[in-house]
Amino acid sequence: MAIKTKPTRIVVVGAGAVGATTAYTLFLRSRAAEIVLIDTNVRKANGEVLDMQHGLPFVGCSRIWVGTYQDCADADIVIVTAGVAQRPGETRQQLLVRNVRIIRDVVGQLRSCNFQGILLVATNPVDVLSYVANQEANLPTGHVIGSGTVLDSARFRFLLGSELDVDPRSVHAHIIGEHGDTEVPVWSTANVVGTLIDLTAEKRRRVALQTRKAAYEIIESKGYTSYAIALALDRICTAILYDEHAVLNVSTLLHEYRGISDVYMGVPCVVGASGVEKVIDLPLSVWEQTAFEASARELRARIQEALAVAK
């Protein structure tokens, strides 16, 4: 007798620009057999899902529906995008007070339905909120992941590819630290097929600034970011669902990582079916180490603020 296996399920919490685009990306790529969208604005979620369902004859065979937190009980991955959107000119950290309580409520709902899968946080400020989620979730630490600097690293690689006139997929370069203003470009190991990237100081400064300011530019232009972050979240989900052991710069809780502990930051991690399986010690120059430590100090301060808000 054949053993019936549970269909793969991804739940997206939040039907705003990021959540809806992420659900659509997962749906378009048939990333999971079941995709569920949850939002307090059920009418909005219904509209997004109905629009996708009408495209089923053109794509794969994923089922998608508007659900409740009870649908999270059997989910492989829950992606949290719910939160107040970043306003033009507003930093990610300014979102903190408004979004901590939302994350705590979502995680409380997941505890109530005994969710045991991977919790992937995308709501900003993502590093701080991932720390809060880990404190609240009653899950193994490796199961609570922030989207980290996966997107920042992709932006960095795109800009370097444009500067060097090569395919960005051939550029190997990392942004680590905060997903935000204190992020650190790792120039010392940036390379194209093993050849270190040699740019002038001015070009490096310009590329780093464009990478750091990319989200602000997009938000000023269209009000929100959505496409690239949805692709980044899909990439993380793929690594989890297919147990790829892929190296991605997700945000995870650090313990004596280059002298830094008790803070969520984006660093190269091996990501597979059990979430973050290993953290890779990336060699850093003196300047990069100093900047990384400064980023950690900033995030620790914001974490303490978040914990105070959460009381």
Shape: globular
How many strands in all? 14
Q: What is the rounded distance between the termini? A: 53 Å
Percent range for β-strand residues: 15-25%
- Assign the structural class, choosing from mainly alpha, mainly beta, alpha/beta, alpha+beta, or little secondary structure: alpha/beta
- Helices and strands, in order, run as EHEHEEHEHEHEEEHHEEEEEH
Mean pLDDT: 94
Helical residue percent? 40-55%
Rg is 19 Å
Spatial ordering of strands, largest sheet: 3-2-1-4-5-6
- Counting H and I runs of at least 4 residues, what is the number of helices? 8
Major sheet: 6 strands, parallel
What does this structure look like?
The chain is of the alpha/beta class and 311 residues long. Helices cover 42% and strands 19% of the residues. It has eight helices and 14 strands. The strands form four sheets. A six-stranded parallel β-sheet has the order 3-2-1-4-5-6. A three-stranded antiparallel β-sheet has the order 7-8-9. Helix 3 runs parallel beside helix 4. The longest helix has 25 residues. It is globular and about 50 Å long. The N and C termini lie far apart (53 Å). The model has no long low-confidence stretch (mean pLDDT 94).
